[in-house]
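Hi R.,

Here are the chain sequences for the assembly we discussed:
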Amino acid sequence: MIIKMAKIDRRVQKSQDAIKNAFIELMSEKSFDHITIQDISDRANVGRRTIYDHYMDKFDLLDKLIEEHINELRKLCESASELTFAEGNMIWFEYFEQNYSFFSTMLSSKGAPAFRKSFLEFVVEELDIDLDLTEGINQGLSRNLVLRFFGAAIVEIVEAWITNGLSEPADVVARQMGQLLDRNL
Amino acid sequence: MIIKMAKIDRRVQKSQDAIKNAFIELMSEKSFDHITIQDISDRANVGRRTIYDHYMDKFDLLDKLIEEHINELRKLCESASELTFAEGNMIWFEYFEQNYSFFSTMLSSKGAPAFRKSFLEFVVEELDIDLDLTEGINQGLSRNLVLRFFGAAIVEIVEAWITNGLSEPADVVARQMGQLLDRNL
DNA sequence: CTAAATCTGTGCGTTTTTGCACAAATTCAC
DNA sequence: GTGAATTTGTGCAAAAACGCACAGATTTAG
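And here is the predicted structure of the full complex:
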């Protein structure tokens, strides 16, 4: 971060944004399999060639897109490492809200199940960092079991909230989930 | 039109669109005099250099912008030359509605008075084409006087409708103004 | 009024985007 | 299943956008 910050060329930024947005849009209209590079190129109003300048193929595009958001979430986790779950969740849920269209399509039925997997993996990874089994109420439990147990729980709540169209206020969900986690971890 | 239709490069189109939109936006925020090329470049998210690749300066930009819309209106007039005013006006007012942000800023207080002048000039020009003084109710009247009389009237109605925020339905205004014109020209 | 800051217009070399063409792969329609 | 149509991935050369630097004009602040 501090080491290399070669600012991205404005054109690159714009092209990638257009491509990603077009892709997300298309994901909400048809399944991943039926999206063609051509479609993306048309929708993004970008030369087909340009897409290949940035991504290997649509799988790569999807990967990069997922990875990018996971990385953003990872950063948020770092910056919130000193907070309680209840507090940190607020930041998380804000991010979900801001990038609603992405998470919505990625978690919806048509969306790539790939994302759910990556997401759970990441959540487990993050929980792993702070989980302490040597003392407290979780003493003696299997690390793996605890991580998967709460990891899946978190993912489920986020998914439900997103696919329900954000029907409940972010801060309410964040606080309640935070309460459950702070009580257990 | 039929002769040369060298399709515009996608990048050119996008840059110019961004620049024009940024400019229109800025026009609604501050007066023309206070808008800098820098502002436009920032707002449009386009290199300052790029603006100079397309326009001499902000005056040129304004000119081109105005000219472009006037030309569009001219095309509409041609395609509607066989219609009555009541009918043709519908097409006109649709165009105004579609490009509301442009006309709105151009006719608003802060907008460049330059536009009003160009616009009136154009309307007169168009009326001139079809005006026949050799017969009918306008026999014997001064051509110039008739043109300016109704030209100004038309501009005024359009201006009032636009600056009033399109409070009345386009088709109503179009039809009523059409009635007045069909009765007189 | 003066100094600092900002904006302007332009030259220049670099990077990115683009369209086109093409062969191979895939999908679609019948 | 076969043939037509579409999509894919890539090479290439031209066009556009870019950032930077600079000197001069203009604006802003004290």
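Residues 9, 11-12, 15, 46-50, 53 of chain B lie near DNA strand D (CB under 10 Å from a C1'). The radius of gyration of chain B is 18 Å.

Let me know if anything looks off.

Best,
T.
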